[in-house]
From TrEMBL:
Keyword Transmembrane: yes
Topological relation to the membrane, as annotated: Multi-pass membrane protein
Compartments in which it is found: Cell membrane
EC number from the UniProt entry: 3.6.3.17
Keywords: Cell membrane, Hydrolase, Membrane, Transmembrane, Transmembrane helix
UniProt KW Cell membrane keyword: yes
Domain of life, source organism: Bacteria
Protein name: Monosaccharide-transporting ATPase
InterPro entries named in the record: ABC_transp_permease
């Protein structure tokens, strides 16, 4: 048996160093851009808008940007859980509208803002549960089910409100919208808390393992004893719950419950998930990625507004970035 020389580890270390990709090779690797698209995009936007419009980097504008992004961050988290199961929730924006309407009606009836908030979140969670139950029990494609609930929930919201906005003058919601703790407003802390809780649920619980397994290969997950139907129902219920939290933040921000669907909430939630590197085919997901993607989309709109770019061009810019991110995702490892 040959005894290795003392300098053998040196050669091994050198070989390991040679196997590491160089910076240029890393930058030319499409999978790198697929994994870091949202981060690179956000940094790029900050640099470009910071140079072209210095007010973009002002403390006041950054705080306003974070407040505006809070709702989208919460919605993108809910959409992430659904997309992780290889599904999609098209009813998110309608659920937000329904939650806002129920909050306004219950508060206007004099039952108190606490009960109003609870019932609003319960209603949107019920919408999510209904989506999951119809998809699993009825074996109906998620696109068809959530498209149907999008229409049905929209009609229900219009019937309940009579098509008229409902003013909400709650002191609690006013403090939620305008108050702050430390450097961030309360809505930002709500979004940060949602990110932390969702990250723990996805990566440090059995449910998270089952969720990713279900999205990766539902037949294999079922063979392993995972109750995939329950996992899917839970994912859509979480999406509905997040829609309810977003409804509270939205009503607090504008001071009323509007019986109108903000379609940009739905489109941007999907866009943030794509930018965050979540696989649209399921089985691969993160929480921080979509949150950064939501910040990126909000920064894009904010920067274009500061540059006096017409609002008609802003959806075009968002769409172009999302399509580019989808193309890059083909190279994910």
């Amino acid at each position: 048996m040959t005894i290795p020389e003392q300098n053998a580890p040196v050669h091994t270390a050198g070989a390991a160093e040679e196997s590491r990709p160089s910076l240029s090779a890393l930058l030319l690797d499409p999978s790198f851009w697929a994994d870091w698209a949202s981060v690179v995009g956000l940094v790029g936007l900050v640099i470009v808008f910071g140079i072209s419009q210095p007010v973009f980097l002002s403390i006041a504008n950054l705080q306003a940007l974070l407040l505006a992004a809070a709702i989208l961050v919460v919605l993108s988290i809910g959409q992430t859980f659904v997309v992780a199961t290889a599904g999609i929730d098209l009813s998110l924006a309608a659920a937000v509208m329904l939650g806002a309407i129920i909050l306004g009606l219950v508060d206007a009836a004099g039952y108190g803002i606490f009960l109003a908030c609870v019932l609003a979140v319960a209603a949107t969670s019920a919408v999510g549960f209904l989506n999951g139950a119809l998809i699993t029990a009825g074996r109906i494609p998620d696109f068809v089910v959530t498209l149907g609930t999008l229409s049905g929930v929209t009609g229900l919201g219009l019937i309940l409100s009579g098509g008229e906005p409902i003013m909400v003058g709650s002191t609690f919601l006013l403090r939620l919208a305008s108050g702050s703790f430390g450097p961030f407003g309360y809505p930002v802390w709500v979004a940060i808390s949602a990110v932390l809780v969702a990250h723990i649920a996805l990566y440090h619980t059995r449910f998270g393992v089952h969720l990713l397994a279900t999205g990766g290969q539902v037949e294999s997950a079922s063979a392993l004893g995972i109750r995939t139907n329950r996992v899917k129902i839970a994912a859509y219920t979480i999406s509905g719950f997040c829609a309810g939290i977003a409804a509270l933040l939205l009503v607090a921000r504008i001071g009323s419950a509007e019986p109108q669907i903000n379609t940009s909430l739905l489109l941007n939630s999907v866009a943030a998930v794509v930018l965050g590197g979540v696989s649209l085919f399921g089985g691969r997901a993160s929480i921080l990625g979509p949150a950064i993607g939501a910040l990126m989309l909000t920064a894009l709109v904010n920067g274009l507004t500061l540059l006096s770019v017409s609002a008609f061009y802003q959806p075009l810019a968002v769409g172009a970035i999302v399509v580019l991110a989808a193309l890059i995702m083909r190279y994910q490892k």
